[in-house]
Write a structure and sequence with these properties.
There is one protein chain. By secondary structure, this protein is an alpha/beta fold. The chain has one domain. It has six helices and twelve strands. The strands form three sheets. A seven-stranded parallel beta sheet has the order 1-4-5-6-7-8-10. The chain has a three-stranded mixed beta sheet with strand order 9-11-12. Strands 2-3 form a two-stranded antiparallel sheet. The longest helix is centred in the C-terminal third of the chain and has 14 residues. 39% of the residues are buried. The structure holds iron/sulfur cluster. The site of iron/sulfur cluster has 10 residues, from loops. Iron/sulfur cluster binds next to loops.
Length: 267
Amino acid sequence: MSENWEIYADWNPWHGCTKISPGCKFCYVYRQDEMYGSEISSSECRKTGNFNLPIKQKRDKSWKIKSGTIVFTCFTSDFLLKDADAWREDCWLMIKRRPDLYFYFFTKRIDRFLECIPDDWGDGYDNVLVGCTVENQAMVDYRLPIFKSLPIKHKSIMVAPMLESVNLSPYLDDTIEEVAVSGESGVNVRPCDYNWVLSVREQCVEKNVAFRFHQTGAYFIKDGKLYRIPRRYQLSQAHKANIDFRIGKYMVPENVKFEWSDDVYHS
Ligand code: SF4
C-alpha cells in the first residue's frame, strides 16, 4: 500500500443492514438513523444517491474523488450483505476502474466472501483492503479461520465492539496489516475492559503485527473501575493511552459520516 495516502473519502453505495451477531446489538447505523428521524427501517437495505461516487467526475472531467484517496466503503451497511448481491458487481467494476484509490471495507459476513467476489479476483485486487470484524471469542473462532484462508491482498482485523477478552494469536501473522480494537459507543452499551485491550496488544507485539487502540467506547473499565466516557473523548482517550504498536497512519476514519437524508435514496 502506498505511503502517500493522506485523504479519506466515504462511499456508502447502499444503506441499511440486518443484525447478524452479538456485536450488532447496538449498531451505530440504527442509532444514527433514529437520531436523524429516518422513516425507513434501518434493516431495509437501499441504494443511495452516491452509488456511483468513485466514477463521478467534475465539470472539468477530473474525478470527484482524488487519486490516492483511501475510500471507506459501505460503512453504513455491510459490503457483503446478501440484500445487496444484485448491486455489488457494479461496485467491483468501479473499484477496478479506479486502481488509483484504496477501497477499505469491514465485514461481519466474511463467510460470504467467496460468493461475492468478481470472476477476475484471483489473489485479490491490489487496491482493496478487507477488515474482518470480531466482537467475542465465538466470532474469532468462527470468522478468523475463514478470513485466514481467503485470497485477499490487504487484511486487517477489527475487534469491535470488544465484548470480552479474546485470543487472536492463532490468526496473527504477516498477512495481517493491522489489528484495531474499539469499545462500544452509544447509550447503555456494554463496557470494554482495558485489560482485554492490553491482552490483544500483547498478542500483536508477540507476532509483530501492527496494533491500534481506536476508541474506548462509552463505558470503560480500568483497574476494576467503570468510567463513562463522553463520545467526544472516546477516540482521544484511547489515543492518550499511547499503546499503539507499529502504526504509521490511521487506517480507519475517526467518525463515519452520516450526511444523507432519505430523499437521496433511489426508490
Ligand atoms: S453488520 Fe455492521 S452495519 Fe450490519 S447490523 Fe451489524 S453492526 Fe450494523
